[in-house]
């Protein structure tokens, strides 16, 4: 009996066969592309290693530096268990129990399925480990009080995976899942209040206070200030190529989102995102550009 129990335990903890592990990582790479992890966690301007962190994210609440999420055991997430990873993505809590700042968009990633989260972790663990220590954030004193994040979460955070709407089509639900969970479009395209929470009345309506001081456009179907004149085909083509219906191209951050992520997705998934965006309530909300205040600083998050 004991021998049988030991064999059963061994079977549960043995690693997946190579083929299965490879398939899981392959699926994870797709989740990785859809989620845009590399855009924030790779310091491309400084020639940093893939996912080794260090890239700056300027916000109205200070400058956040993305952490190292390579499999390095000391500086990255190499020592994390699956449960650690799911807790970070689902609840915004580190393995040590501290709360993450919402600059890490766990507020959207919480909606990913467990299966996609495990696949994403499997892919991240195929990346070369980089022994690069994390850089401390540059924040005002009040924002450095991490215990206050508990109250922020109480006010603004709704953890839990995406629940399909049975009243909607499979394509709509797939688009909603990709746009709100993986691609986390609302994190940049929704205005925030003075405490950094979403302005829920103007979801996806754009903001002049986006990352790095960028102007982020309104992507609701409003014909005057949003993308109401775009067809679903226009939107899907834009997400694949970066080209707008009038022949212009995506710039700066959005160009990275497309080049490194969305352009790698299946056409059906791009059409699903377009279908979902066109179903949103049209919100009239004009956002304008800011003038550059530093040479070379990004000033726009263009279409």
Q: Can you characterise this structure?
A:
The protein is 39% helix and 3% strand. It has 303 residues and is mainly α. It folds into two domains: 19-161, no CATH class; 166-287, Cytochrome c-like domain (Cytochrome Bc1 Complex, Chain D, domain 2, Orthogonal Bundle). Strands 1-2 form a two-stranded antiparallel sheet. Strand 1 (56-59) and strand 2 (62-65) form a beta hairpin. Helix 2 (18-35) crosses helix 6 and helix 8 crosses helix 12. The chain starts with a helix and ends in a 24-residue tail after the last helix.
Defining key terms:
303 residues, mainly alpha, 2 domains, globular, disordered N terminus, signal, Membr-bd_ADH_cyt_c, oxidoreductase activity, acting on CH-OH group of donors, Cytochrome C
Determine the N-to-C terminus distance. Answer: 65 Å
Helical fraction: 25-40%
**What structural class is derived from the secondary structure elements?**
mainly alpha
Number of structurally distinct domains: 2
Round the mean pLDDT to the nearest integer and report it. Answer: 89
Radius of gyration: 20 Å
What is the multimeric organization of the chains shown? single chain
Keywords: Cell membrane, Heme, Iron, Membrane, Metal-binding, Repeat, Signal
GO molecular function, one term: heme binding
Domain Cytochrome c: 23-128, 170-281
Pfam family, one: Cytochrom_C
Please render the helix and strand layout as text.
Elements: H1 2-13, H2 18-35, H3 37-41, E1 56-59, E2 62-65, H4 82-91, H5 106-109, H6 114-124, H7 148-156, H8 170-182, H9 185-189, H10 232-241, H11 252-260, H12 267-279
Antiparallel strand pairs: 1-2
């Amino acid at each position: 009996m004991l021998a049988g129990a030991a064999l059963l335990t061994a079977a549960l903890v043995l690693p997946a066969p190579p083929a299965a592990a490879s398939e899981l990582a392959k699926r994870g790479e797709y989740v990785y592309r859809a989620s845009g992890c590399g855009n924030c966690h790779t310091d491309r301007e400084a020639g940093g290693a893939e996912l080794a962190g260090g890239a700056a994210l300027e916000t109205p609440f200070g400058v956040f530096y993305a952490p190292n999420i390579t499999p390095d055991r000391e500086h990255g997430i190499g020592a994390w268990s699956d449960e650690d990873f799911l807790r970070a993505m689902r609840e915004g809590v580190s393995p040590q129990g501290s709360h993450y700042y919402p600059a890490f968009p766990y507020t959207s990633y919480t909606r990913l399925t467990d299966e996609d989260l495990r696949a994403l972790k499997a892919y991240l663990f195929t990346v070369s480990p980089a022994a690069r220590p994390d850089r401390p954030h540059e924040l005002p004193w009040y924002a450095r009080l991490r215990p206050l994040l508990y109250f922020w979460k109480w006010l603004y955070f709704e953890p839990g995976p995406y629940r399909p709407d049975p009243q909607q089509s499979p394509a709509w639900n797939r688009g909603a899942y990709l746009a709100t969970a993986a691609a986390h479009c609302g994190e940049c395209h929704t205005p925030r209040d003075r405490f950094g929470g979403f302005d829920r009345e103007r979801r996806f309506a754009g903001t002049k206070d986006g990352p790095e001081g960028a102007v982020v456009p309104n992507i609701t179907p409003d014909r005057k200030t949003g993308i109401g004149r775009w067809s679903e085909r226009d939107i899907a083509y834009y997400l694949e190529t970066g080209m707008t219906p009038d022949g212009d191209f995506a710039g700066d951050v959005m160009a990275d989102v497309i080049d490194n992520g969305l352009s790698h997705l299946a056409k059906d998934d791009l059409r699903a995102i377009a279908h979902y965006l066109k179903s949103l309530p049209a919100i009239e909300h004009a956002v304008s550009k800011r003038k550059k205040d530093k040479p070379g600083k990004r000033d726009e998050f263009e279409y």
